[in-house]
Design a protein that fits this description.
Blueprint lengths: L1 H29 L18 H7 L3 E6 L6 E5 L6 H4 L15 E3 L11 E5 L10 H4 L4 H6 L2 E6 L2 E13 L13 H13 L17 E7 L7 E11 L32
Parallel strand pairs: 2-3, 4-7
Antiparallel strand pairs: 1-2, 1-5, 3-4, 5-6, 6-8, 7-8
């Protein structure tokens, strides 16, 4: 029995190494963050989109949170189940289930919705979106307030403002809002429920376009951590940072509520 257990542990350890190595190889080929990314012009932060799309045509973006392991391609399809267990190279993952970082099927592939929801697994080796769960520590949260979403259309520099810890069935996966008032109420709720107190948060009325990063908590309660951010700077046409107008909000849009209970589990 001991031998069997050791073999099983070895296989799982290998699957962790294999999974992360595959993503590291992709990153080395297509994206090299500037040494001083804060000082770099947002438009000069580049990804080799041709190479990425040659590997996986479902590619829509890249997510990078400096100082963490979050440095991955983002995919998008009409079926969220696909990339729960399929990695960026199209391989079914086993042991350590890496899957892929993916934009919700309820979202537009160009990140033009008022709320863009990006899902990723919480792996026990600290990879994928595991770092987000550590942001419930105020020092960790405040040390990593900046995130980047890079796309073929342009780039977003984001500022995080809330981390909520919710049950799997919490109805937070709303991608569009029928009015400014509905959007503002949604944002205020996320600020009120944040497990950390963020400084310098703009008025919810000034946040017209946001990004949410969701992952499992890996606890018996099977909850979710969701990190919310607003646009601090953008090179994407017709998308303004906080305080400006934003084409993502359609006053006539119906509220599109997604299923917040997606199986984002390691």
């Amino acid at each position: 029995m001991l031998v069997v257990a050791l073999v099983a542990l070895g296989a799982i350890a290998f699957s962790y190494w294999q999974g992360q190595n595959a993503y590291d190889s992709v990153a080395q080929e297509v994206f090299e963050p500037p040494a001083d990314i804060e000082g770099a012009a947002l438009a000069d932060i580049t990804v080799d989109w041709d190479k990425l799309k040659a590997i996986n045509p479902d590619t829509v973006g890249w997510v990078y949170i400096p100082g963490t392991a979050v440095n991955y391609p983002i995919v998008h399809t009409t079926d969220d189940e696909k990339y729960l267990t399929t990695d960026f190279n199209g391989q079914q993952t086993w042991g350590a289930t890496y899957g892929s970082i993916f934009l919700s099927a309820a979202n537009a592939a160009d990140f033009s919705d008022a709320n863009n929801i990006v899902y990723g697994h919480h792996l026990n080796n600290g990879s994928m979106f595991a770092a987000i769960t550590g942001f419930d520590n105020a020092d960790q949260f405040n040390a990593h307030r900046t995130a980047y979403i890079l796309t073929p259309q342009g780039n977003f520099k984001l500022r995080t403002f809330s981390l909520v810890h919710v049950a799997a069935d919490d109805p937070l996966a709303q991608t569009a809002f029928a009015s400014d008032e509905e959007r503002t109420a949604y944002l205020q709720d996320k600020i009120d429920r944040s497990v950390v107190a963020a400084s310098g948060v703009p008025s919810p009325a000034d946040i017209a376009h946001m990004f949410a990063f969701a992952t499992c908590d890996n606890l018996p309660s099977d909850g979710r951590y969701v990190l919310f951010s607003y646009i601090e700077e953008s090179t994407v046409p017709n998308v303004a940072a906080v305080g400006g107008t934003d084409a993502a909000l359609d006053p006539d849009a119906a509220a599109a509520v997604g299923d917040a209970s997606k199986e984002i589990a390691a």
